[in-house]
Structures are given as structure tokens and as C-alpha cells.
Amino acid sequence: MQISYTMTYSVIIPTLWKCNLEDFYKTLRIFCGEPQIKEIILIDNDITFKQTIKSNILNLSPKIKYCPQDENIYVNPAWNLGESEARGEHLMIVNDDFHITSKKTLKNIIKTHQENKDIYTSIYGISTSCYIEEPTSNKIYLTDNEGRGTGWGCFFILHRYTWTDIPNELKIWFGDDYLTKHVLSNGGKVYTFKNIKASPFSQTLSSSTFNSILDNDTKIYMEKYDI
Fold first, then answer.
1. What CATH number is given to the structural domain containing 66?
2. Which of 27, 160, 198, 224 has minimal CB crowding within 10 Å?
3. Strand ranges (DSSP E) for 78-161?
């Protein structure tokens, strides 16, 4: 498929500001500098966090669309909100602790995505190998036979019209499971990016305070949606 330089992406990032803020700032700068990124929708789930730090980030670029929340609405509802605000053709869902290491990496991800023939019907995430292996070259690969491993949903892309709202009763986990089941049920494929250097993931969710939500999300998903 020929690369379309008019194709645009809306980046959706929920945050509690518990990630490495220096890496977060660098990643946002890379997103802001990429012409095919139309906007970065930043959903603030902790409005009490230091305003001076937020100001430095929010003043990076007019591309940043700030969506403060009165309370933590959690990840999946934040993704739904981001999609409703998005104006780009494709959605790029990103954890705040997923660090894009260079402009070239982002350009290669976009190029690899746009070269795929199923771009309008499928969903694209990150291989578990990206968190534990160094890239062997500058070439990014796609596979549709690896399945979704750990960390797949820390960075994923799908077309806006492929989206379906995640049930709000699923707060943090299983949102990407719900979306991939929707894509597969409509004839799309689940692709995995490989040979990307990815940072450690889920730094925020490593806290034991989220265990009860994990238990509840698991129960709800298994009983109602894993059919």
C-alpha cells in the first residue's frame, strides 16, 4: 500500500502522572513533531498533580488537547472519552509509560502500519519481545500469527470506524481484549509490531491498590464478554 502523508492519527493517553515524567515529556515532543499526528488527547485522571510540571507539558504544542477529569475515571473509560474527542483518521492508544525513543522509530511505526493492506479493518499492538529484546535493525515487522502477549495493549492502533466503546464497568483491564474480539468478529485481524525497542510497562498499575479492580474486571469480563 502506498504511504499517505495526508493520513492522520489521534494519540490518546490517559495519565495519573506516575510515569517517568522525563521520558513522558520526550515522547510527547516526538508525537508533537510528527506531521501525521493530528493531536495528542491527554486525559488527566489526577488533577491534583503539580501544576507547574503539567504546564511545561501542556505548553509543548497546540496539538495537545487537555481533558482534565474531576476524579480518576480509569483507563478504559478514558479511552472511550479519547475516541469521542478524536479527529484523526486512526487512533493511537498509548500508555503514559510507553516511551518512544526517537522520531525515526515513530515514523517507522507509522510507515509499517500504512503499508499493511488491512489498515482499515484491523488492530495493531506491540509484541512482548519488544520489551525484552534489542532491535536487530531499523526495520519494523508485522505478524498476524503471534497473538496478543503481555504488554500488547500498551501501544496499539486502529481506525476510528473500527472502534467500539468498551463497557464502562471494565475499568482498567480487558479493554484491549474487548476491542480485539470486536475486530475479529467483524473480519479484521490482530497484528503485532516486532523489532521495536519498548520501555517497561504498567508502572502505575504495579501498585497493589489496583488489585481489587483487577479482580472485579476479570470477573466481569469472563462472565459477560469472554464468550
1. 3.90.550.10
2. 224
3. 90-94, 123-126, 141-143, 155-159
